[in-house]
Specification:
Strand content: 25-35%
Order of helices and strands: EHEEEEHEEEHHEEEHHEEH
Structural class: alpha+beta
Number of helices: 7
Shape: globular
Strand order of the largest sheet: 2-3-4-5-1-6
């Protein structure tokens, strides 16, 4: 399962020696960490780079959003925001490097409480290899992040929650759909022209694909009642949320027009989407036994 918020992080701090730390060292260390992810066959392409600077324009930090892959039952799956690397130089005296992950592929028990021995065996050693190589290169061990709702980070990966006990039986189902929706809703102005976001019964849905045929998410509507929405596919990253913003804007128009929720998929399929929306891949809706099942489909691969 993939998450909006990190499920674990590891930070290393290196103090300056004679001459201090030049701000450019942040770029060098972040790039080196990304290269380690690549050698472990986790990072799969160039990262998105975000730079921060002081008022005078001197570089102090860099953040890399890293597309990556994990193995599951013999198949490789890709996520556009699998890892984040952050490196910062503080006053030329201290360098801090933080590695974050948003996948539970490294865990013995996934974030919905299901044991996954094969997935863990295929992926956990790669994460351990990455953490150890970065520690060797910087000459310092990591400080694992605090235990969180999803997992317990350790020096070499994650604790086995079968031994220590999970914080929640189904942390992903409890927190992730709401976190994903907050990220999506933050892109939109507030309004009263929204359908309900939750339904207990089956839902109908259509798949939305981008210009490169990647699945961006799923438009859905309750078979009865007044609920409808868009579930962004977490693995697709920012394009999924950009598409979701556009589809939710159209759903608001449908709500203002008085279109009943069960008819929204038909209403939307008759409209010409803008380029950032992607396209409806199959006009005939499919049925999911529940909204929870569709949310999992959007957050798994």
């Amino acid at each position: 399962m993939l998450t909006t918020d990190p499920i674990g992080d590891w930070t290393r701090e290196v103090e300056a020696r004679d001459g201090g730390l030049p701000p450019s060292r942040a770029v060098e260390v972040a790039a080196a960490a990304h290269a380690v992810l690549g050698r472990a066959e986790i990072a799969v392409s160039e990262a998105q780079t975000h730079v921060s600077a002081r008022d005078a324009g001197e570089l102090v930090g860099v953040r890399l959003v890293c597309p990556g892959q994990w193995w599951e039952h013999g198949w490789r799956y890709r996520a556009e925001e699998l890892f984040t690397v952050r490196a910062e130089v503080w006053g030329r005296e201290l360098l801090a490097l933080t590695l974050e992950t948003r996948s539970d592929a490294w865990l013995a028990v996934d974030t919905r409480g299901r044991e996954q021995p094969e997935i863990h065996a295929a992926n956990s050693p790669r994460l351990r290899e990455v953490l150890e190589e970065i520690s060797d290169s910087l000459g310092t061990a990591p400080t694992p992040g605090d235990e969180n709702r999803y997992a317990v980070p350790t020096d070499t990966g994650f604790a086995d929650t079968r031994l220590v006990g999970p914080a929640y039986d189904d942390a992903w189902g409890t927190f992730e759909p709401a976190a994903r929706m907050r990220r999506l809703r933050a892109l939109l102005p507030r309004t009263a022209d929204d359908y309900e976001e939750i339904t207990e019964g089956p839902v109908q849905y259509v798949t939305v694909r981008g210009v490169d045929e990647e699945v961006l998410g799923f438009l859905w509507a309750a078979r009865g009642g007044s609920a409808a929405g868009f579930e962004p596919r977490t693995a697709a990253g920012e394009p999924a949320f950009a598409a979701g913003r556009a589809w939710l804007t159209s759903l608001r128009e449908a709500h203002r027009t008085g279109v009943p929720a069960p008819e929204t998929l038909t209403w939307l399929s008759r409209r010409t989407p803008s380029p950032d929306m992607g396209r409806i891949a199959h006009p005939r809706p499919r049925t999911s036994r529940s909204l929870d099942a569709l949310e999992e489909l959007a957050g798994r691969w």
